Amino acid sequence: MFGFSAVLWLLHSFGTEWVNRLSDRVEDQVNRPERTTLCELAGYDTIRRAAIGVWASALALDAAWVAREPSPVLAVLLAVAFLSGTNYSYGLRLKRHRILALFALTLPNTGPLLLSLVWNGPSYFFERSGPVLLVMG
Fold it and tell me: Counting beta carbons within 10 angstroms of the beta carbon of residue 23, is it exposed (0 to 12), middle (13 to 18) or buried (19 or more)?
């Protein structure tokens, strides 16, 4: 299960970051020209396709998890993680609000990993979360 949670965490993290690269294209030209250069090298169309593919993969894994372990609570938590990651840059643009931005960045990046660890019980979480908590600290 730890491998699954790591993959889910990676997908949510990359998805949030790549969507943000697309939405910040104009601002990054002024504030972060080195980021703009890297994005232009990769190609904004490539970044867009990658973001769509990553979020589609994350949704597929979310659906598989809920199908394997049906739970309305799990479904809601995974939906909130998805919505906060995608609405950080587009839609609600949560990054414009200081507190909501912290929530939106934290949940997609650590939520799926911690959720899957906690889902297996507190003892599993504390046995396996040392590296996670070390990185977060």
Answer: middle
Outline where the chain has alpha helix (H): 2-23, 25-31, 33-42, 44-68, 72-86, 98-119, 122-128, 130-136
Q: Are 44 and 22 in contact (CB under 8 A)?
A: yes
Q: What are the CA-CA distances from residue 31 to residues 26, 28, 44, 76, 107 (Å)?
A: 9, 5, 18, 36, 26
- CB contact at 8 A, 78 and 107: no
pTM (two decimals)? 0.72
pLDDT in tens, 21-30: 998 899 889 9
